[in-house]
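Take a look at the protein record below with the fold in mind.
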Amino acid sequence: MITPAHRLCTLTVAAAAFTALGCRREPPQHGMLIADPQPAPALRLADAQGRAFDLGARKGDITFVYFGYTHCPDVCPTTLGDWARARASLGPKGAAINFVFVSVDPERDTPAIVQAYAHQFDSSFVGLVASVAQLDTIKAAWGFAVEREDMPGMKPGEYGVGHPAGVYLIDRDGRMKFIFAPDTKSAELASDMKRLL
């Protein structure tokens, strides 16, 4: 289930996009189109092998970016599963799109854990985790909040993490071009991917 913080973050991102960036939905595109797209904020993190991932160096590529965490019970695995099905439906053309999952739970997630989690869905997916200091910088740059949540039914020491539920699409020019709602289906993603390739 999507937590109140998930809904709050999604509504905050959507409201900011509509009011500040002039977003509109243009059929048959399923993502929320940003009418005046700006360069994507910086995202520089090391993967499980210590290799640097730099979103700014991916110009020329189409990149989906999602912020979540590996203990997420609902929207995170659903989103990555939809990514995997959409990518598979494109066949060889799917290799032209990058999929990046960034954990916002540095207390429990390590680079190795996040990479293994992302690879459960597709071995081409990039799994990264931000340190506490890096996460503070990323939250400020990308304009979202992360909130620890103690939810009913959890065992002692367990917790949830409120995070942005939407998926960011970065175009070939390095601009944040679309925001996809968490309920965007794999067929809808695949349709939009075909338009972007």
User: Anything to note?
Assistant: The first strand starts at residue 32 and ends at 33.
